[in-house]
Amino acid sequence: MPRELLVQVSPEVAHHDEQLYPHIAKLIQVPVQDIQKIVVIKRSIDARQRTIKFNLKLHVFLTGEPLVVNKVELPNYPNVENAQEVIVVGAGPAGLFAALQLIELGLKPIVLERGKDVRGRRRDLKAINRDGIVNEDSNYCFGEGGAGTYSDGKLYTRSKKRGDVDRILQLLVAFGATPDIMVEAHPHIGTNKLPQIIQDIREKIIEHGGKVLFETRVTDILIKNNEVQGVQIQDGSTIHASKLILATGHSARDIFELLHRKEVLIEAKPFALGVRAEHPQQLIDSIQYSCDFRGAYLPPAPYSIVKQIGGRGMYSFCMCPGGVIAPCATANGEVVTNGWSPSKRDQATANSGIVVELRLEDFKPFAQFGPLAGMEFQKDIEQRAWRLAGSTQQVPAQRMVDFSQSKISSSIPKTSYVPGTQSVEFGEVFPGFLTQTMREGFVQFGKSMKGYFTNEAILHAPESRTSSPVRIPRDNYTLEHLQIKGLYPCGEGAGYAGGIISAAIDGEKCALKIKEAIG
Questions:
Q1: 119 three-state secondary structure
Q2: Domain 85-267+470-518 has CATH 3.40.50.1460
Q3: Rounded to whole angstroms, how far apart are CA atoms 353 and 349?
Q4: Which pLDDT score is estimated for 264?
Q5: How far is it, in rounded angstroms, from Cα 263 to Cα 483?
Q6: pLDDT per residue over 38-59, tens digit each?
């Protein structure tokens, strides 16, 4: 059996075996030549002190001991071409991992995706960035892989109780992700690498008898006697099945509206909304690492910050070190921001959503929309921002200190947001309570992170798609909708996940419950 060690070492030692092996040999008091292999199990950075250290969890194999390295392999998927069919609406992480799990269980997934495949999406992303043209079915939110494919690929989750995180990470590695995602405390694939992994998952689904249909938007869910019968798609044709996993993501407003029209039970859900803040990455490095230059062995620094401002939480969300801000509107007449990083996180800027928690009572001005009140609140801000920035995909922008002092910024430098910005006072974009919370909050952020509160930081509005504004209620045990038999609300769009990993876990859970129900 290998020895398991928890050690703290310098960044240089952590990155060089020729330094790590002698260090561990001295620590366990053996000659260095007696160490056969050191396997890093977990790695994280401790930047709380001026001298930055790496925390390593290691397995140390001595000479003569059997060297056991766990090999990551895909399950032995059967061919399900002639098996019972299950409709999966949405090819994001929830839908794709549900499909894989269905195949593993001997069921045939029919995956319906309104958007294009990963390669086809690229033309539409170029159009929204360069020309301000929004394809309402193919954009940063809709298409193969869902919102995560072209918005970073972060794999960190606090949802350990939701399910087996390691299983999802192992599957991703088996499909081509770097094994480092099994080791890093905050794993990340990168927007440049995730598309190929998503494509390989799709090909595996098809290879084993499943179907994946792109540019296939669901326009109706067929229900009889409160039981699912199938779906209708945009060309008027129908696909029949008695089990349906609804994994459409947090921005599929047409699905929320469809359910509401059909009097299928849904409910408004609190979410968070705010801005996306961009700083020079070097500034964030200097704050987090307490040094002028981070050097060769430290990654671009992230940050995480939470404050209570007037009884509301204000916090960083989806922080992207060495990343850029992207236009994530899903309809014409609105602007939405999000952030992403390439795998190397080598861009000159860092950005993060800075958002404020909302409550159901905040949606009272939209009460006439019933359970869609939060969605209409969200939509109103996105449309107002679009008009204020000139009715293009440019977004309202303001320097951070100027915003906190209610001053229009006299100039906005070029930022990573490609469509561009317009100087706007954010008090015109957001409701008063939200504006005031953020004004006070940024000042408080600056007290915790010296140097963060600066006019070098440019705020972009709005960051509004943090999570679904609607929950589709389901039974806690069966995961079926409370009213409609055979309907399985799933993932972020249904209100049961918050990121790639938790959505994938939820997709698998729904597939398992369908198998259990079928018997």
A1: helix
A2: no
A3: 14
A4: 98
A5: 10
A6: 999 999 999 888 899 999 999 9
Domain 3-62, CATH: 3.30.70.2700
Q: Answer whether residue 6 shows pLDDT above 70.
A: yes
Q: What is the mean pLDDT of the chain?
A: 95
Q: Which amino acid is at 103?
A: I
Taking only Cα atoms into account, the Rg of the chain, rounded to an integer number of angstroms, comes to 24
DSSP per position, 188-228: B--TTTHHHHHHHHHHHHHHTT-EEESS--EEEEEEETTEE
Residue recorded with tokens 């129900």: 517
CA-CA distance, 91 to 70, in Å (whole number)? 30
Half-sphere exposure of 185 (CA within 13 A, CB side): 10
Question: Which pTM was predicted?
Answer: 0.94
Q: Which residues on adjacent β-strands are paired with residue 425?
A: none
Query: With contact defined as beta carbons under 8 Å apart, do 438 and 356 qualify?
Result: yes
What residues contact 257, with CB distance under 8 A and at least 6 apart?
A: 372
Hey, where are the domains in the chain? 3-62, 85-267+470-518, 272-463
Q: Which amino acid is at 206?
A: I
Q: How far apart are CA 243 and CA 358, in angstroms?
A: 34
Taking the CB of residue 308, how many other CB atoms lie within 10 A of it? 12
Q: Which helix (H) or strand (E) holds 325?
A: strand 324-327
The total of other beta-carbon atoms located within 10 Å of residue 348's CB is 12
